[in-house]
Every structure is written in structure tokens, then in C-alpha cells.
């Protein structure tokens, strides 16, 4: 049974999320502030639902600390934001959140997003097991599937699970133009009409970390991987 940590300072919302997740078969821990969240975080947590505006330590800082921790950086994060917090939403994705939802939101939609993340993780692990001895090379870039490691030149590039999955999909489809909607479906596991900034921000993070122009933007369509060396 997957274990989810819900970090939300508003008790009614926290309890509503907990109720819906437990009804869907998940084990749920809760925290009312960022400090309590950090105390409860461990490698036993499979996913975090993280409110942006929190007492003690805000959600952005919790996200930053998780992504900087060897033990916690692999845990998926869904960030909750208020309707008007667009800049903060983008910053949350830049910090390494896998996805976000804007309040008010449907608990059913949140559960669907979480199920999609876990489904994609299982599919990705199964695919990685089949390719466990495979190393994908493209120019100076090397992806070690079994270790979930990326090497650029001689330097190790630290990626979140979602960034690694996205890069892997781009590399194995190199030269092919991939739409944002397709990437949402294949990497995030759901169809999402409209706002595709989640994809754009993750692409921007990959470009910044790899420090090479492997990923080309196809205006009005999406992205493609182009081996530059």
C-alpha cells in the first residue's frame, strides 16, 4: 500500500484530502506545517501532497530541501496553490515539484492525478527492468537506465524521477517532434487540455541542468531531441 504525506495547514482541506485518499486505498500521514512535514518525511513516503503557503517552513522550502536530499529527492510532489499564485506555481515546478493543482480543486481529480503518477512509476520501473543493462548515449550525454543516472561528459547530472523519465522519452524518440499534450500523457499519465506549463517548466529545468542545446522547441507544437555533437 502506497503511503502519502498530506501537508496542508487548513484542517478542513487536510481532512478532506485524507478521507478521499484513504477511501481510495492509500495509507495517509498528515502535517499542518512545513516543520512537521520535514519531521515526518522519510524514504517510506511514496508521494507528498504539499501546500505552497505553510506556517513555520513554506512549501517552496520543503520542496527545495526534498530535492536536495539523497533520501527524499525521488519522492513525487504534487503542489497545491491558490488561484492567484501563478508565479509561485511556476517557481514550485522550478524547485522540482512534479505537478500542481489550483485551489479550489476536486478531490476526485487529485486522486486521479495521484493514481496516474503511481501508474506511470510502475510502468517506468517495469520498462527500466527490461532495459536494466542498457545505457543510452547521445553525443556527450549518457543515460544509465538501471541506476537512473545521467552523465554529461564526465559530470553526473542530478535529475528528479520525472525529469529522468522525460529526458529518456525525448532521447529514445530523438528527431521526432513531441507535442506537449503527448508528453503530458506519456510522462504524467493523464490527458490535460489547456495548461501545459508543467511540461515547459520541466523542459527548462532539463536544459539548465544538461547545459547543452539537445532539446529544440518546435514553435506551436512541442519539443524534439536533437543530438548536437
Automatic annotation (TrEMBL):
The keyword Membrane is assigned to this record: no
Using the record's annotation, list all stretches that form the OmpR/PhoB-type domain: 133-227
The ranges the UniProt entry gives for DNA binding are 133-227
The family database entries (InterPro entries) matched by this protein are listed as: CheY-like_superfamily (IPR011006), OmpR/PhoB-type_DNA-bd (IPR001867), Sig_transdc_resp-reg_C-effctor (IPR016032), Sig_transdc_resp-reg_receiver (IPR001789), WalR-like (IPR039420), WH-like_DNA-bd_sf (IPR036388)
| Record domain Response regulatory: where | 3-118
Could you tell me the superkingdom of the organism this chain comes from?
Answer: Bacteria
Keyword field contains Zinc: no
Per its UniProt record, what Pfam families does this chain match?
Answer: Response_reg, Trans_reg_C
Task: List GO molecular-function terms, semicolon-separated.
Answer: phosphorelay response regulator activity; transcription cis-regulatory region binding
4-aspartylphosphate: residues bearing it: 51
Record's GO cellular component terms: cytosol; protein-DNA complex
UniProt keyword list:
DNA-binding, Phosphoprotein, Transcription, Transcription regulation, Two-component regulatory system
One Gene Ontology BP term is: regulation of DNA-templated transcription
Q: Which PANTHER family match?
A: ALKALINE PHOSPHATASE SYNTHESIS TRANSCRIPTIONAL REGULATORY PROTEIN PHOP (PTHR48111:SF73), REGULATOR OF RPOS (PTHR48111)
**What is the annotated role of this protein in its UniProt record?**
May play the central regulatory role in sporulation. It may be an element of the effector pathway responsible for the activation of sporulation genes in response to nutritional stress. Spo0A may act in concert with spo0H (a sigma factor) to control the expression of some genes that are critical to the sporulation process.
What's the protein called, per UniProt?
Answer: Stage 0 sporulation protein A homolog
Amino acid at each position: 500500500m502506497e503511503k502519502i504525506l498530506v501537508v496542508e495547514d487548513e484542517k478542513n482541506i487536510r481532512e478532506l484530502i485524507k478521507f478521499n485518499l484513504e477511501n481510495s486505498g492509500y495509507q495517509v500521514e498528515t502535517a499542518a506545517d512545513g516543520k512537521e512535514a520535514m519531521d515526518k518525511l522519510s524514504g517510506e513516503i511514496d508521494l507528498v501532497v504539499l501546500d505552497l503557503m505553510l506556517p513555520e517552513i513554506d512549501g517552496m522550502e520543503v520542496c527545495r530541501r526534498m530535492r536536495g536530499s539523497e533520501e527524499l529527492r525521488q519522492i513525487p510532489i504534487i503542489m497545491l496553490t491558490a488561484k492567484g499564485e501563478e508565479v509561485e506555481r511556476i517557481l514550485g515546478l522550478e524547485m522540482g515539484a512534479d505537478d500542481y493543482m489550483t485551489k479550489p480543486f476536486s478531490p476526485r481529480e487529485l486522486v486521479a492525478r495521484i493514481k496516474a503518477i503511481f501508474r506511470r512509476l510502475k510502468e517506468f520501473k517495469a520498462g527500466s527492468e527490461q532495459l536494466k543493462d542498457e545505457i543510452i548515449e547521445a553525443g556527450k550525454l549518457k543515460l544509465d537506465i538501471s541506476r537512473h543516472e545521467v552523465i554529461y561528459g564526465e559530470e553526473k547530472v542530478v535529475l528528479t524521477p520525472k525529469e529522468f523519465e522525460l529526458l529518456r522519452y525525448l532521447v529514445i524518440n530523438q528527431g521526432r517532434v513531441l507535442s506537449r499534450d503527448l508528453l503530458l500523457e506519456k510522462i504524467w499519465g493523464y490527458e490535460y487540455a489547456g495548461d501545459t506549463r508543467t511540461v515547459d517548466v520541466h523542459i527548462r529545468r532539463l536544459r539548465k541542468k544538461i547545459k547543452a542545446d539537445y532539446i529544440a522547441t518546435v514553435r506551436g507544437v512541442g519539443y524534439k531531441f536533437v543530438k548536437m555533437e
